[in-house]
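Researcher: Structure prediction, please.
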Amino acid sequence: MHGRGGRALIALVVTGLLAGCAASSAAEPDLTELEPPAAAAEVAALGILGDSMSLGVNACGEQGQCAEVSWAGGSDPAVGSIAMRLAAASGAEPEVVNAAKDGGDVGEALSLADEVIRARPQLVTVLLGGNDACAPSLEEMTPAADYEAGLAALFGRLNVEAPDATILVLSIPDLHHLWEIGRTNPQAVQAWNSSPSCSNLLGAADDDSAEADARRDAVAARVDEFNAAIVRVCAAAERCIDDGGAVFAYDFSGEEISAIDFFHPSIAGQRAIAEIAWGALEGGSE
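Model: Predicted structure follows.
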């Protein structure tokens, strides 16, 4: 499923998951009538494995981590995180163990899983792969086979060592789309061109040459491969729910992207991810 054409294949799924999501970008989500999802009916401990997106990096007014607005474990009512939704639905706040790592990839998540496993979670959220695709060069991207093997090892370990946990895994956002919506913004281009982050996609951001387009398309293709691997690995694991590609298909708007680096989700973007994740959890089954 390639980026530009893949959205059409899952448009109906995304429409169902994101009903009312556009409106939520302007107001706090209403959590008053939530019911505990069957796949996570009682969650005393919520484990989080991921990267900077699960840490709210650059979502607040200053550069750096802002975990209170994390889509997964945050406490800010403007986001309505998975942790807050679980608390609203059940009346009991879960213990949140956020073992996400800024800049972390799938291999590092496997090494950080101990912290989550020790908490004996009933739900583990996973959003990984952006740093496996983003690299200084195309050659330094994680090979698709290695990403899939790492994810399979991670889920296998969670199944064995956290046997009560449902795994909720989200697709990787369409990173190429983020470049598309920022490429005409001089501030975004300046930020990207002056940063070493994700330079295989965002480097020379205003270069419209065929070579630059091919480079960006190669990153997009690797993200597609990773997202296909997520579906396969989740299907093979026990107690695993994926989002049907909904995060990848979501067309983040300019206001849903950080004004600090024009790459990470803003508070509104974190809210959009939380909406998608909760919809997937509600629609999933053990």
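Model: The longest strand covers residues 45-50.
Researcher: Thanks, that helps.
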